[in-house]
Amino acid sequence: MQPLPEAAQGSNEQWAALVLRRALTDVNLHGVDIPAGSLVHVLLASANRDPRQYPDPDTFDISRPTIERHMAFGGGPHFCPGTALSRLLADLSFRSWYPHVHRLSLDPADPPTLRLTQGSFGFARLPFIIGD
Ligand code: HEM
């Protein structure tokens, strides 16, 4: 079993969505020509499901050996400075609700709905039934 911070990376951070960049020069990425000056939507959530990095990418698997290669906090000079704080908060939050997970179940009569706003993936509603 992995320590909790990695588990949090594998689940929580996979929801981060996109960053914007302006191409400074003509560039070709994976066969796609991107002219200089283009605005590029970099889909981090898509990168985090790249089958070349993560075999079977849509399977929830927090024990992946490649899990720490994710792009959820970006990369390079703009790498998120809130990473350590976010991991700490995720760790505390997982530790507080994990002991109660066995009491929670999804309500078949009221299924979860996804938030559809561009750039922000996640659940708009995630109702649980709390058992004994
Ligand atoms: C799970 C939580 C978080 C995720 C997934 C996340 C994700 C990201 C990503 C992907 C970027 C890169 C943006 C880019 O390259 O254009 C970024 C930048 C940034 N993040 Fe976060 N972030 C999180 C939490 C936080 C927190 C808690 C703070 C502050 C307390 C924070 C402050 C910032 C700032 C100031 C930048 C801009 C850095 C720059 O442009 O140089 N983030 N974040």
Overview of this protein structure:
It is a single chain. This protein has 132 residues and is an alpha+beta fold. It has one domain (4-103). The chain is built from three helices and eight strands; from the N terminus they run H-E-E-E-E-H-H-E-E-E-E. It has helices at 4-11, 44-47, 83-97, and strands at 18-22, 27-29, 32-34, 39-43, 104-106, 113-114, 123-125, 128-130. A hairpin with an 8-residue loop joins strand 6 and strand 7 (123-125). Helix 1 (4-11) crosses helix 3. The longest helix is centred in the last third of the chain and has 15 residues, at 83-97. The radius of gyration is 18 Å and the shape is elongated. Mean pLDDT is 84; it is low at 1-14. Protoporphyrin IX containing FE is lined by residues 12-13, 16, 19, 44, 72-74, 78, 80-82, 85-86.
Number of domains: 1
| Helix run count | 3
Task: Please tell me what the overall shape is.
Answer: elongated
* Ions, cofactors and other bound molecules: protoporphyrin IX containing FE
What is the CA–CA distance across the termini?
A: 26 Å
Please estimate the helix content.
Answer: 10-25%
How can the largest sheet be summarized? Answer: 2 strands, antiparallel
- Beta percentage is 15-25%
Count of extended strands: 8
- Average pLDDT: 84
**What are the low-pLDDT stretches, counting only 5+ consecutive residues below 50?**
1-14
- Radius of gyration over all CA atoms, rounded: 18 Å
- Widest sheet: strand ordering: 1-4
Encode the helix/strand succession as letters.
HEEEEHHEEEE
How would you classify the helix and strand content by structural class? Answer: alpha+beta
